[in-house]
Amino acid sequence: MTRVTFLHPDLGIGGAERLVVDAALSLKKQGYEVNFVTTHHDPVHCFSETKDGTIPVTVVGDWLPRHILGRFFALFAYIRMIYAASYIIFSGNRPDVVFCDLVSVCIPILRLRIPYIIFYCHYPDQLLSQREGFSKQLYRIPLNYLEEITTGMAHKILVNSLYTRSVFKDTFKRLTIEPEILHPSINTDYFDKARIVSLERVLDKKLPVDSIILLSINRYERKKNLGLAIEVLAELQKYLTEEQYKKVYLIMAGGYDKRVEENVEHYLELIGLADELNVTDKVIFLRSPSDLDKVSILYHCTVLLYTPQNEHFGIVPLEAMYMNKPVIAHNSGGPKESVVSGVTGFLVDLSSNAFALKIADLIKNPEYVQQFGDAGKVRFMEIFSFAAFSAKLNKTIEDLINKKKVK
C-alpha cells in the first residue's frame, strides 16, 4: 500500500486546507494510506475530517514561535516547516509520497529520504507578501529566491487554475517546469449526507419565511474584499421596491482565528461598515461556521456573492454550484474558469453597482435563480466533480511513481 503524507503548515479552515483535506480523502478512498503532518491544528478551528479520526493528524513544532514582535512571519513559517519535514524523514513509518503545499522550503529536506514529492502551488507566496518599505523588500529577497529554487526541486508541481499557472510562470522565471493543473473540488459525499438544519438554528435568529438570502463565505481578511458585499447590500436598495428590499438579508460567514490579528480587526471593521451604511439589521455575521452550518446556509441562500479580486481559484463558488445556487463574482482569477457568465451566474466589474444590478435582476426574475443554479450543478458535475479530481490526482501519483521506476 502506498503511503502518502500531507505536509501543511496550519491545518485550519481555509480554501487551501479544504483542498488538501479533500485530496487526502480522495486518495484514502482509492486505497492509499494517508495522514497529515502539520505545525498547528486547533480542534475547534479545523475541518471535521481532521479531528474525528477520518484522517490521522500529527502536530510537530507548534512550540516554535510564529513571529517576533509581529514580524518575520514568513521566516518562522519556513523554520517550522523545515522542522516538520525533518520529523517526517526521521519517523519510523516514512511515507512513499509527500504532498506539500504553501511552503516549498521544506522540499530539499524531504528529498534526502522521500522518493516522491508533490508540491501544490495555490499561489506564489512572494506575491502574497505585502510590500511595506525598503527593509521588508530586503528581507524578502533571500526568501523569494529560496521559494523559487526549492519549488523547482519537487518531482511534480501542481497548480489550481490556468490563472495561477500563468502567474507561476511569470513569477518563477528561472524554472522551465510546466506545472500541471489540478482544479480543486469538494467532498460531495459530505454535502449529500449532511443533515440540513434550519436557518434559525444556524443563525440563532428568526428570519421571515420568504427572505431573500445573499451569502458571502470567505475568511475575515481584507484581501477578500468583504466590505464590498455590505456595500452591495446598501446599493441594492436603489434597484428594488421597498417591499422587495425588506426581504433581503446578507449572511457574512467565514474563517475567524482569534490568534490572527487581522481576523479580529477586520471583523470589527465590517461591523462598523454595516452600521455606517445603515444596514446593520440586515447583516448577520458568522465566525468559523461548522461544516454542517456552512452546508445549511448554502442550501437556504438565494445567491452567492464572491467578492475577492484575482482569487487564485475559489472553492466557495464550486460549493454553491453543487448546491444549485447562482454565483455572482468579480470577473478575474479562478472564477473566470468556474463561473459561466449569463449561464451559471454573472461575472461583473469590481463595484457595488455592478453586483447590485445583477442581484436585482435575479430577485425580479426568480425563475433565473433556479435556471442558473441548475446550470451550475451540471457544470460542476462535468468539470469539477470529486470523481474527476480524484482520478486526476491518482493518475498524477501513479505516473510519477511509474516514471521513476522506468528510470
From TrEMBL:
Known Pfam families for this protein? Glyco_transf_4, Glycos_transf_1
Where do transmembrane segments lie in this chain? 72-90
Please state the Enzyme Commission number of this protein.
Answer: 2.4.1.132, 2.4.1.257
Q: What subcellular compartments does it reside in?
A: Endoplasmic reticulum membrane
Glycosyltransferase subfamily 4-like N-terminal domain residues are 13-188
Class in the EC hierarchy, top level: transferase
Glycosyl transferase family domain residues: 206-377
Q: Does the keyword Amino-acid biosynthesis apply?
A: no
What does the record list as coiled-coil region(s)? none
Keyword Nucleotidyltransferase applies: no
| Membrane topology label | Single-pass membrane protein
Q: List cellular component terms (GO).
A: endoplasmic reticulum membrane
* Entry keywords, A to Z: Endoplasmic reticulum, Glycosyltransferase, Membrane, Transferase, Transmembrane, Transmembrane helix
Reactions that this protein is recorded to catalyse: a beta-D-Man-(1->4)-beta-D-GlcNAc-(1->4)-alpha-D-GlcNAc-diphospho-di-trans,poly-cis-dolichol + GDP-alpha-D-mannose = an alpha-D-Man-(1->3)-beta-D-Man-(1->4)-beta-D-GlcNAc-(1->4)-alpha-D-GlcNAc-diphospho-di-trans,poly-cis-dolichol + GDP + H(+); an alpha-D-Man-(1->3)-beta-D-Man-(1->4)-beta-D-GlcNAc-(1->4)-alpha-D-GlcNAc-diphospho-di-trans,poly-cis-dolichol + GDP-alpha-D-mannose = an alpha-D-Man-(1->3)-[alpha-D-Man-(1->6)]-beta-D-Man-(1->4)-beta-D-GlcNAc-(1->4)-alpha-D-GlcNAc-diphospho-di-trans,poly-cis-dolichol + GDP + H(+)
Q: In which pathway does it act?
A: Protein modification; protein glycosylation
Q: Which residues form the signal peptide?
A: none
What coarse category fits the chief subcellular location reported for this protein?
Answer: endoplasmic reticulum
* CDD domains, sorted: GT4_ALG2-like
Which PANTHER family has this protein been placed in?
Answer: ALPHA-1,3/1,6-MANNOSYLTRANSFERASE ALG2, ALPHA-1,3_1,6-MANNOSYLTRANSFERASE ALG2
What functional role does this protein have?
Mannosylates Man(2)GlcNAc(2)-dolichol diphosphate and Man(1)GlcNAc(2)-dolichol diphosphate to form Man(3)GlcNAc(2)-dolichol diphosphate.
Tell me the protein family, please.
Answer: Belongs to the glycosyltransferase group 1 family.
How is this protein named in the record?
Answer: Alpha-1,3/1,6-mannosyltransferase ALG2
Annotated organism of origin: Frieseomelitta varia
